[in-house]
Amino acid sequence: MQIGLGYAPVLEEKMRILVVEDEVKTADYLCKGLSESGYRVEVALNGLDGQHLVQEHEFDLIILDVMLPGLDGWQLLQIIRRKLQTPVLFLTARDAVEDRVKGLELGADDYLVKPFSYAELLARVRTLLRRGPPREVEQFQVADLHLDLLRRKVTRNGERLTLTNKEFALLHLLLSREGEVLSRTLIASHVWQMNFDSDTNVVDVAIRRLRAKVDDPYPLKLIHTVRGMGYMLEAQE
Known about the structure:
- By secondary structure, the protein is an alpha/beta fold.
- Helices cover 38% and strands 19% of the residues.
- The chain is built from 8 helices and 11 strands.
- The chain has helices spanning 24-36, 47-56, 73-83, 97-105, 118-130, 165-176, 184-191, 202-214; strands spanning 16-20, 40-44, 61-64, 88-92, 110-113, 139-142, 145-148, 153-156, 159-161, 223-226, 230-233.
- Strands 2-1-3-4-5 form a 5-stranded parallel β-sheet, with helices on both faces.
- Helix 2 packs parallel to helix 3 and helix 6 (165-176) crosses helix 8.
- The longest helix is centred in the first third of the chain and has 13 residues, at 24-36.
- The radius of gyration is 21 Å and the shape is elongated.
- The protein starts with 15 loop residues before the first strand and ends with a strand.
- Mean pLDDT is 86; it is low at 1-13.
């Protein structure tokens, strides 16, 4: 199979693609071919590294194998779909109809079986990228807490919560990074778009006020302090 096809599309040269593939030869093949076709390519050789890259960087497309060490492709796709609508193309040797159906039902945008033609892969990549940038997730829910980004509406146990603009932005950040420990510096830069001195307690005050509305009236607490590190939002039993 010939890689690259001899040209790079000008309009797509800055688009970023993440390849999560544990077979080194296949990963190298995809990286070389896609790079020659004008894309910026990152490679992860296992599911956990793929998860880390997805959480730390923005990609226009993800090419994902199913059988991965550490965290398989099914699990990684579910994690991705909790927060992102980035196009995902499964590239796997699993060719059973049941596997294709499962991949699509979990939220994959396309499914290509190995061995594959690079020309077909490239055509599918371009088709997915032409659909435009992924839309931001508009609905977030953890336990009985629900945030509607489009309507700027927050409810807990079906009751409407009244939040200030900063409280809404803070809650949106915590929900969009569910289960992750967020430092005070990260929270400050995202919510207030500036870096605060380490001894400034503005984040702590904002968290305390948000807890008073989101957590205090309800038995299940969702916002947690991680001593020495920051805060996280998670439904812990």
